[in-house]
Design a protein that fits this description.
Chain B: InterPro entries: MetI-like, MetI-like_sf. The complex is a heterodimer of chains A (348) and B (280). By secondary structure, chain A is of the alpha+beta class. Chain A has eight helices and 20 strands. In chain A, the strands form four sheets. A six-stranded mixed beta sheet of chain A has the order 6-7-8-3-9-10, with helices on both faces. A six-stranded antiparallel beta sheet of chain A has the order 13-12-11-14-19-20. In chain A, strand 9 and strand 10 form a beta hairpin. Chain A is elongated, with a radius of gyration of 24 Å. In chain A, 41% of the residues are buried. The chains are: A alpha+beta (348), B mainly alpha (280). At the A-B interface, strand 6 and helix 2 of A face helix 9 and helix 10 of B.
Chain lengths: 348, 280
């Protein structure tokens, strides 16, 4: 196990810069998730950390060693790929033991390590099978097994669950988390799925356009997003944004006044942010016109018109209203956010 | 073929297929049956589709008139060397063109492909001069070296490149993380996965070498050095007239390994070409 430090890491392909100076400190044993939309540079960053891509500038250190110029094999890392990357012509056992065999580890030791990893991942009955004879979830486990047999300093996961169906994804998410809790190996995990990021990470790094938008614990990002991008990216359904300005009696949007936290100077042009789950039904509250009602069983998602802006509300209660009718809602000012109308940065 | 065709359509389709089969099967049938006929029966009119008399002594005479066993061995070992050499070089070249980023890789590949456009007849005289200079005339070296570094290998390189391009990049990345260098990745990961394409290359190359005719007649002059296609022209009587039944017996023996190889491996051959993006 080891800490990982990225200092001012940059990457360019010719004149096109894709990573613009990333600084991240990952503590020993920490589970860090790099999250962001497609093309934000998260996979490139992981590949640079693995040594599969060169870095243009900056330093990457694993433990006390700067690994900029080291080959992947010399970095003591193990990686799990999006499409598993299992060797199709080798059995599960051969796949898992391949790196050890290549490092001329004794056969007995390899067999022991493979058995140990297979035991942890429930792969013992499949050791003699070929990858083509396994289901998606089993292949994913083999890919993880191949990583853990080596007992590396750092695990790298590159969107490992994106090829699985929704149900299996939830199961494997739990298994990866459990594996981390058991092995306590430093882990860097890339995903574009913010739910994965929220549920698995000790620390989330939100990336956009090759830059870090915010680094923090999952709930910290949820409760106090640093900017409008993070606010919109973390949470599902996304936070609602309403443009307007701070007035004497609240936030004045087009056709409606909303409660907002104190402290922001009156007259400030801003974007008002409120999460769908932070609306509460109240007959005496602010009036909103129902546009769409989507009952989901455990909760009801309502698209409604607040002033002139369409917003989404998520209610634990069942909403009986029909499109065109009006409902009353309230908002806890402590759970609202204000962002600068120009640069999107958090106000207050 | 669809199985839901009506019986009448089926009869028409199968009947048509049978008719179309005749021009492909008849020459082989004629070759095999004529090889066991007395020479007078070959020219009988109307022709005998099935032999009336059998004369298996033709097969013995093949070995009396020519050092046929030696010629068989020549063809076999030359084809084996050419196949092994082409598989080795084309797989390495194909992998390099598909996977290694180096300056002008695509331009170089285009230049290599242009080699396919040059007919063997155009290069045969300069090649003769070259091998004459190297003292390799009337040896088997030209028959081994020309296919390995010539047009057949270019085609094989193309087939292998197309296969390696389609191989997921993550497999190589996983191998790099597992500690393998470039050659080991090629040898232990890429090459074993390329078996369908290698199979196609092997069959294609073997057939090409086995059937090679122009190069042997240019480079070889002694019967003990001849390969089979060249030897087939040598079964004549004292006046230069063809001993057709003996010649067809030799042709049958010549065609046999090719037929066996193709029957066994035709599926792999078609699959390999399909992998390359080519239509078989």
């Amino acid at each position: 196990m080891a800490s990982v430090t990225l200092s001012d890491v940059k990457k360019s392909y010719g004149k096109a810069a894709v990573i613009h100076g990333i600084d991240v400190d990952i503590a020993d044993g920490e589970f860090v998730v790099l999250v962001g939309p497609s093309g934000c540079g998260k996979s490139t960053l992981l590949h640079m950390l693995a040594g599969l891509e060169t870095i243009t500038d900056g330093t990457i250190a694993i433990g006390d060693d700067v690994v900029n110029d080291l080959e992947p094999k010399d970095r003591d890392i193990a990686m799990v790929f999006q499409n598993y990357a299992l060797y199709p012509h080798m059995t599960v056992a051969a796949n898992m033991g391949f790196s050890l065999e290549h490092r001329r580890v004794a056969k007995d030791t390899i067999a022991e390590r493979v058995k140990w990893a297979a035991g942890i991942l429930g792969l013992e009955p499949y050791l003699d099978r070929f990858p083509r004879q396994l289901s998606g979830g089993q292949r994913q486990r083999v890919a993880m097994g191949r990583a853990i047999v080596r007992d590396p300093k750092v695990f790298l996961f590159d969107e490992p669950l994106s090829n699985l169906d929704a149900k299996l994804r939830v199961v494997m998410r739990g298994e990866i988390k459990a594996l981390h809790q058991r092995l306590k190996t430093t882990t860097v995990y890339v995903t574009h799925d913010q739910v994965e990021a929220m549920t698995m990470a000790d620390k989330i790094v939100v990336l956009s356009g090759g830059r870090i938008e915010q680094v923090g614990a999952p709930l910290e990002l949820y409760d106090r997003p640093a900017n409008q991008f993070v606010a919109g990216f973390i949470g599902s359904p996304s936070m609602n944004f309403i443009p307007g300005q701070v007035g004497a009696s609240g936030f004045e949007a087009d056709g409606v006044t909303l409660p907002c936290p104190a402290g922001t100077p009156i007259g400030t042009k801003a974007i008002y942010g409120v999460r769908p789950e932070h609306f509460t039904l109240s007959p005496d509250g602010i009036k909103a016109e129902i546009l769409i009602v989507e009952p989901m069983g455990s909760e009801t998602q309502v698209t409604m018109k607040l002033g002139q802006t369409s917003v989404i509300g998520l209610f634990r209660e069942r909403v009986a209203g029909m499109p065109g009718e009006t409902i009353g809602i309230t908002i806890d000012p402590a759970k609202t956010h204000l962002f600068d109308a120009v640069n999107g940065q958090r106000l207050g | 073929m669809k199985t839901d065709l009506s019986p009448r359509i089926k009869v028409i389709v199968y009947g048509l297929m049978t008719v179309l089969l005749i021009p492909f099967v008849f020459p082989t049938w004629w070759m095999v049956t004529s090889s066991v006929k007395p020479i007078s029966d070959i020219f009988a009119f109307p022709p005998d589709i099935f032999p009336r008399r059998f004369d298996f002594s033709t097969y013995g005479r093949v070995f009396e008139l020519q050092p046929f066993a030696q010629q068989y061995w020549n063809s076999a070992y030359i084809a084996a060397l050419v196949t092994a050499g082409t598989m080795m070089f084309s797989s390495m070249a194909g992998y390099a063109f598909a996977r290694i980023r180096f300056p002008f890789a695509n331009t170089l590949f285009m230049i290599v492909l242009i080699g396919l456009l040059i007919p063997a007849e155009v290069t045969i005289v300069p090649l003769f001069q070259m091998f004459l200079g190297w003292g390799m005339i009337n040896t088997h070296w030209p028959l081994v070296l020309i296919p390995i570094f010539g047009a057949p290998s270019v085609f094989a390189t193309f087939v292998m490149r197309q296969f390696f391009i389609a191989l997921p990049k993550e497999l190589e990345e996983a191998a790099r993380v597992d500690g393998l260098g470039r050659f080991k990745i090629f040898w232990t990961i890429a090459l074993p996965l390329a078996r369908p394409a290698l199979g196609a290359v092997a069959i294609f190359t073997f057939l090409h070498s086995w059937n090679l005719y122009l190069e042997p007649i240019v480079f070889l002059s002694s019967p003990e050095n001849f390969t089979l296609p060249q030897a087939l022209t040598q079964f004549t009587d004292a006046y230069g007239g063809a001993l057709w039944n003996v010649q067809l017996a030799a042709a049958t023996m010549t065609a046999l390994p090719v037929l066996i190889v193709f029957i066994i491996a035709q599926r792999q051959f078609v699959e390999g070409l399909a992998h390359s993006g080519l239509k078989g």
